[in-house]
Specification:
With 194 residues, the protein is α+β, with helices and mostly antiparallel strands. The protein contains 8 helices and 8 strands; from the N terminus they run ααββββββαββααααα.
Length: 194
């Protein structure tokens, strides 16, 4: 719970009573590597705060190609936001890349927190605003940057996990094939060793 409270404290100050109430609304769960937390066409009833490990969200197109939408490591939130907010079946899978421990916050408990502790509403608004900014930047990057430049941005955004995540997931996040990614990475390494 400390990591969640630290995350919140970066944006809003909670009283001890508010912290206790918040902690009573989250549940801790552990998932094994490759275990699904959410499947496509399911309704996302909760969001996940990563305590330890790595989550990825992705969809699979009609050709069976996996497209990684996002990664979440310690201190990050993840959910299928379309499904979570609309209450409709989602398009995303959420999977643990490695053994991962999360705090789960159900939608109805989040709404109760918003009603009882308006500062929590502000905290999530700030997170959503930051997420919108990051998603807009990622779209612009995908339209205007080379794969190498997108990889450099990935390394800046995820410095602690770039060596822990299998290359196939990084390639999917960058929107390139694993073969292209492998060649690109080899080329970058050769260029840096000159």
């Amino acid at each position: 719970m400390d990591l969640l409270l630290e995350s919140i404290a970066k944006h809003v100050d909670l009283t001890e009573e508010e912290k206790d109430f918040l902690c009573s609304k989250v549940t801790k769960k552990t998932f094994k590597a490759k275990e699904l937390l959410l499947k496509e066409n399911e309704i996302c009833h909760q969001s996940f705060f990563v305590l330890d490990g790595i989550l990825q969200s992705y969809n699979i197109d009609e050709q069976g190609v996996k497209h990684t939408l996002s990664l979440a490591t310690s201190g990050w939130w993840m959910a299928d936001m379309y499904s979570f907010l609309s209450g409709k079946p989602g398009q995303l899978f959420i999977e643990a890349i490695e053994n991962t421990t999360v705090l789960c916050l159900r939608k109805e408990d989040q709404q109760l927190l918003f009603d009882q502790i308006p500062k929590i509403d502000r905290y999530f608004r700030i997170l959503i605003e930051n997420s919108l900014i990051a998603n807009q930047q990622r779209i612009i990057d995908n339209l205007s940057l080379t794969a190498e430049e997108r990889y450099e941005r990935f390394c800046q955004k995820y410095p602690t996990i770039k060596d822990k995540v299998p290359q196939i997931h990084i390639a999917s996040y960058l929107g390139v094939t694993p073969e292209f990614f492998s060649k690109m990475k080899r080329k970058l390494l050769l260029g840096n060793n000159r």
